[in-house]
Amino acid sequence: MTKTILITGASRGIGAACAQLAAERGWQVCVNYLAGREAALQVVRGIEDAGGSAFAVQADVSQEAEVMRMFADVDARYGRLDALVNNAGILARQMRVEQMDAERIGRILATNVTGSFLCAREAVRRMSTRQGGSGGAIVNVSSRAGVLGAAGEYVDYAASKAALDVLTIGLAKEAANEGIRVNGVRPGLIDTEMHASGGEPGRIGRLKGSVPMGRGGEAMEVARAVLWLLSDEASYTTGSFIDVSGGR
What is the rounded CA–CA span in Å between residue 185 and residue 142? Predict the structure, then answer.
């Protein structure tokens, strides 16, 4: 039976690469997006043109009702869920902590933390063998920022990713005997549009000298780690992390 995967924030960057690679490896894919409808539909068309199965669903993962609607759409379309990639995440313009206001911090945490918790909750409810499911896997897309702190840039984003790491460890222990594996991937300096969201499109060029491998990474390099953790090759791996960061 063909397995189903839901990838949040999959209209571009790492999420889109995960969707493409998952489809190539035989998954039927739910492509979640917030606002980039045309980009999400382009990801879907690329998968379908290659003979795969995919559909796009709009939902703001920070809103509980929208998360529940999104999972209901997956139920209606495919009738099962076997994997979740918690990839949706946002950041704001670079600034020091002393300049941040509550609105900014709350917005970052709502998407990056609350959204990931809500999606994980709904995935567990469907996949847990204790609740009649067939098991499955969750991969949380974190960041090396959660370890390094992102000082002077976006400590709030880094804090949200550190929280995601704790979700990974705690949920992995909760769900391990219910057929669900939970792991994390921590990308480093990856060439995506997110750097522009932080106000510095050329950030990789400025910081690549701090990377032992001397370059930024590509979204597909992260996707390969994500798909490995979802695969049977990682059958005894849970509560673990892969840093895809060139050694940084």
Answer: 6
